[in-house]
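We store sequence with structure; for instance:
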Amino acid sequence: MVYGVCKFRIARDRQHRTINMYMKYYETLGLTKSATSAEIKSAYRTLAGMHHPDRGGDPEKMQAINEAYDVLKDSTKRS
């Protein structure tokens, strides 16, 4: 029975990590989980304009913004 409990705990931890990862994407773009596709696109464009390396922004911040948008723009990846 101990083995079954460990399997459950591992699955639960993976689920929590996945949920936290997606929440990180929403936080990166400054959105809530209930954001629409239009809101996601608008937030991305605003932040991309502010943090683009060609405009003196931080390349690492821009990479995080791009990663968040790549995941959240696709409704199948988002849900």
User: Anything to note?
Assistant: The radius of gyration is 16 Å.
